[in-house]
Amino acid sequence: MIFESVTKKNNCNQNLFPASNTIMVEKDDIVLIKKILAGDINAFTDIVNRYKRKGFNLAYRICRNRENSEEILQDVFLNIYLNLDKFKFSGKFSTWFYRIVYNQSISYIRKTKNLDYSIFEPDGSIDSIDEEKSIVDKLTNSESVIYLEQALGELIPEDNALLHLYYYDGRKIPEISVITRLSESVIKIRLFRARKKLLTILKRLLNKEFIEFYG
Amino acid sequence: MDKTEKILKQLFKSAPLPELNADFTSSVVEETRLLYKPKVVAYKPLINPFVLWIVLMIPALIIITLIIGGKTVNIEFPNFLTKLEFIDSIKLFSNNYLIIAYSLLILLWFYIDFKLINYKNVKKL
């Protein structure tokens, strides 16, 4: 399976010394921020290189447009540069960064699109655990990756962001709570619902594929 | 972690996401450079300028009064002032000495004030 091999490779790189690695990154971030505050613009280049990909992925999941996501990210970095003196060293820089990306992307979506949330309600929800299991089994096929993007496009941007932060970035619920400013219980409920919606849409897409393939 | 969670994690991680422009970093840094203004260390006086002015003006007024009183006009000093020894000694000096002494006092004041500026509060960006 394509994605399994990719994931294994990623996990190998990430899980060598995960805890110490995170602490190192945080320390490096603080050193870089102090340098930027002292007027070193080269340190800012390092911060951009370190966080551009993560920020872009989150912005893209919310906006679902490459150009707009890039524009948002550019504004995010400029805002960070101008307001870096407001950063509290007691927290993690990555959380602060994600919060700015999240807020800017959501406000961009709200400004540009008049979202009708009713259109995001999928038909035919999954009711039983067995049904969920059968969908999950189908998802192990390499082709299901293609349908994920399509399914995410049918979810609301906030749910997309939550799913991305939780499943893609592996952020913990308390951290997502800081990023989104939602309570932990609300996040748990929304994640549960978003996951259910996602699986429902995937079920529909996979069934459609099955019907198209076998007539 | 249940199977669904695991599969979804794998699915999310393997889903392709578009690439950023290759020159993204350089364009952001370039734009930031345009925003960047050389740091100007603002002079933050240790003492409120108004207070400083008052404090400087008090000895100035006393000295001016003494010069006038000692040199040109015979001012009757109040008893408590004439009793002090330093008044008599000041009267003996010429105007120039007093002006130099006063200038030195002001310079010393500014030197102390500059030395003790709290640079921590000066914004770096």
What is the topological layout?
The complex is a heterodimer of chains A (215) and B (125).
Chain A: H1 2-14, H2 18-37, H3 41-63, H4 66-83, H5 93-112, H6 129-139, H7 144-152, H8 157-168, H9 173-180, H10 184-214
Chain B: H1 3-14, H2 24-35, H3 49-72, H4 79-82, H5 85-92, H6 95-115
Question: What is the number of beta strands of chain A?
Answer: 0
Look at the structure and give the mean pLDDT of chain A.
Answer: 78
Contiguous runs where pLDDT drops below 50 for at least 5 residues of chain A: 1-18
Tally of contiguous helical segments of chain B:
6
Straight-line distance between termini of chain B: 46 Å
Indicate the radius of gyration of chain A in whole angstroms: 19 Å
Strand content of chain A: under 5%
Mean pLDDT of chain B: 66
How many strands, what sense, and barrel or not for the largest sheet of chain A? Answer: none
- The percent of residues in helical segments of chain B reads 55-70%
